[in-house]
Write a structure and sequence with these properties.
Elements: E1 6-10, E2 13-17, H1 20-26, H2 34-37, E3 50-53, E4 56-59, H3 77-84, E5 91-92, E6 95-96, H4 98-109, H5 126-144, H6 149-161, H7 165-171, H8 177-192, H9 213-224, H10 243-255, H11 266-273, H12 276-291, E7 300-305, E8 310-315, E9 318-328, E10 337-346, H13 354-367, H14 371-374, E11 377-381, E12 388-390, H15 399-402, E13 407-410, E14 421-424, E15 433-434, E16 448-450, E17 454-456, H16 459-468, H17 475-484, E18 488-501, E19 505-507, E20 513-515, E21 546-547
Parallel strand pairs: 7-18, 9-16, 15-17, 18-21
Antiparallel strand pairs: 1-2, 3-4, 5-6, 7-8, 8-9, 9-17, 10-14, 10-18, 11-12, 11-13, 14-15, 19-20
Helix pairs in contact: 8-12
């Protein structure tokens, strides 16, 4: 099959391209005026120092600055110019080269520079802009390159000498569909930024059928964002608050992770008032987060989006499972990490953390001394066959003192806080995925409710998916173990990679932009954007455990 040709109008010529990915880098996938697509020159480029923390790779963006990128660890601009014997790396006599334009737009989409029209770059400014474009390119190289610095220099110089920097740039873009989708959304919102965004009055509470100038402003926003079809707009109803507007508001609320009621409450007003320029910054922040993930996605993996309260299982680039999740509240934030599910525990016990014991369970015991017993809590000393248990049924027990030699453990059962399934993900935070007996909480639109662990809407579905991939495990044996009520560990021979991410903006399978509240306020805290950790295991000990 012949590859499809893509035709690009550039510098007065119509150029054919066979590489769709290169076309996406250039940003030619948006149908809009050329002036709106013109990208910008870099005024400042961030650099990413990469530090090693034990076995965890931490990308530290707290110390990002313009100068780090030119340090001795990677080739400098002057070194590249000197050894390539070129006047510029990204310009020719007429302006930006095709490679320069693609780099230029990629860095603009990442939000690493301010915008001015490409055509406004004067010849006497070529060198200054050439240098900062190179700094951005080196940042991407430094983020992705795993070979020695000597090989990095040689490879980059070879690409420059062979005029193949476009191919090298393409290789630096992680292989996730969300990247091209988010770049398309960035272009769309840049275009919307040229419009004057309406000012809304949050105190305005229209009634159905009411005509008002504020309704016209709301309709205008909903049309521009695609939630209210233009064909639903008629001249005589441009300022009427009708069922069409209510339906559009519900769609808007759903896309923004708000309560879907079609009402103009404070949160809906705040979301409607966010300007396209502000959304561009949010989209750029989320685009960068995809660059902090491994460049090549695993064939199969599980992805949790913390602020989106969603879990998805992806096979070969296609989503095969999705469910709601509950994540940590603001005081117990679920950490971003790259790990794997390496064990499923059936009928798990639960050992609460010291903070939960101190702040919740001891006060509960002091108010009602039998409450912990009703929830199947016991005091446990020792492990495995040598474990000793003590009931919590005496109002005179000094629980705080006893916990110096005992552990507080909730036995398996219907009211166990972890439900019937616990999924171990190696990490340094004592965080895991698990079932929950309280299913009603998944009906809430805001689900940052846990102490940091991730509760699953349908843990059984995920457990069956993992177990079915284990050829050595028979489903009937698993069912028997579940029915026994005993804690049973199932180590996985084929651990499933897990990405726990923080995406407040993404594109769903229907091509719609979805936005969620920034529950941990990380979009405004650049130091957290790329804090991903690859982690090792921490064992969890239960009262009595069987292993397959």
């Amino acid at each position: 099959m012949c590859p499809k040709l893509i035709f690009v109008f550039y510098k007065g010529f119509i150029l054919p391209f066979r590489k769709m990915k290169f076309a996406l880098v250039l940003g030619i996938f948006i149908s809009q005026p050329i002036a709106a697509q013109e990208s910008t020159v870099i005024s400042s480029v961030l650099s990413v120092p990469v530090a090693e923390s034990g076995n965890s790779k931490v990308i530290d963006s707290k110390n990002l600055n313009h100068n780090n990128i030119g340090s001795s660890s990677i080739p400098t601009y002057d070194y590249l110019i000197s050894n390539s014997k070129k006047q510029y790396l990204w310009f020719d006599d007429s302006g930006l080269t095709m490679s320069g334009l693609s780099l230029h737009r990629l860095l603009a989409d990442l939000g690493w520079h301010q915008q001015i029209k490409v055509t406004s770059i004067e010849a006497e400014s070529f060198k200054a802009h050439d240098e900062v474009l190179t700094l951005g390119f080196l940042k991407l190289l430094n983020l992705n390159e795993s070979s020695s610095q000597e090989n990095l220099s040689d490879g980059l110089l070879e690409a420059i000498d062979n005029d193949s920097t476009d191919e090298l740039l393409l290789s630096l873009i992680p292989n996730y569909d969300q990247i091209s989708h988010l770049r398309k959304a960035i272009s769309q919102y840049r275009f919307l930024s040229s419009y004057q965004w309406p000012k809304l009055d949050p105190s305005f509470k229209p009634k159905l059928g009411q005509s008002h100038k504020n309704v016209a402003a709301i309709r205008n926003i909903l049309v521009n964002l695609g939630d209210l079809p233009k064909k639903a707009q008629t001249q005589y109803r441009l300022d009427v608050y009708d069922s069409v507007v209510v339906a559009a508001l519900k769609k808007f609320q759903e896309r923004h992770g708000l309560t879907v009621d079609g009402k103009l409450g404070p949160q809906t007003y705040r979301a409607l008032s966010v300007t396209p320029k502000q959304r561009v910054v949010q989209l750029q922040t989320n685009l960068w987060r995809w660059f902090t993930l491994p460049k090549e996605a695993p064939e199969n993996y599980l992805l949790v989006n913390i602020p989106g309260y969603q879990l998805a299982v992806v096979e070969g680039g296609e989503q095969v499972m999705q469910m709601k999740v509950i994540v940590g509240d603001n005081d117990n934030q679920t950490p971003q990490m790259i790990t794997e599910i390496n064990r499923v525990t059936l009928n798990p016990t639960w050992t609460p953390t010291p903070n939960i014991i101190k702040n919740e369970l001891i006060p509960e015991f002091e108010q009602d001394y039998l409450s912990l017993k009703r929830k199947n809590f016991q005091l446990v000393k020792g492990y495995w066959k040598n474990a000793q248990t003590r009931e919590i049924d005496d109002p005179n027990l000094n629980l705080a003192k006893l916990l110096k030699s005992y552990r507080l453990v909730q036995a398996p059962g219907d009211n166990n806080a972890l439900g019937y399934y616990r999924f171990n993900i190696p990490n340094d935070y004592s965080v895991y995925l698990h079932d929950t007996p309280i299913k009603s909480l998944f009906n809430r639109s805001e689900r940052a409710l846990s102490h940091g662990c991730i509760r699953l809407e349908d843990a059984k579905l995920l457990a069956n998916y993992l177990i079915n991939s284990e050829t050595s495990v028979k489903p009937e044996k698993v069912n028997k173990a579940l029915q026994s009520g005993k804690t049973t560990n199932l180590p996985l021979n084929n651990p499933l990679p897990v990405y726990i991410t923080y995406q407040t903006a993404w594109i769903n399978e229907q091509g719609e932009l979805r936005l969620s509240p920034d529950i941990y306020n990380l979009d405004h805290n650049n130091s957290s954007n790329s804090q991903f950790h690859a982690t090792d295991s921490n064992p969890v000990i239960s009262i009595s455990q069987n292993n397959f």
